[in-house]
Specification:
Helix content is 0%, strand content 44%. With 105 residues, the protein is mainly β. Bound molecules: FE2/S2 (inorganic) cluster. FE2/S2 (inorganic) cluster binds next to loops.
Amino acid sequence: MPEGPAWERLGLALSPGEKRVVEVGGREILVCRSGERYFALASRCSHAAWPLADEPIEGSQIVCTLHGARFDLRDGCPVSGPARKPLATYSIELRDGELYVSLNR
Ligand code: FES
């Protein structure tokens, strides 16, 4: 298990390509899996707050279909489209089959 009180156990398992919105510390966080990698980001688009929970993941990007913005899952930065601000990203780790997220990032 990761050290320190800042890590929160999510208590869920994701299949490749699956994503879920969870609440941690009063924030809605989008947790997703692409291949064997896990990502934790803000759950709403930085352009006009569209919910990203049902939006498609293409490789290492998530697409906001409302206006077409694409964000890199690794750092939340916009890759294209009207969004200019990055999505907040959070640390996420898989330890002993359990997912943990930390808001301290
Ligand atoms: S709300 Fe996501 S691109 Fe506009």
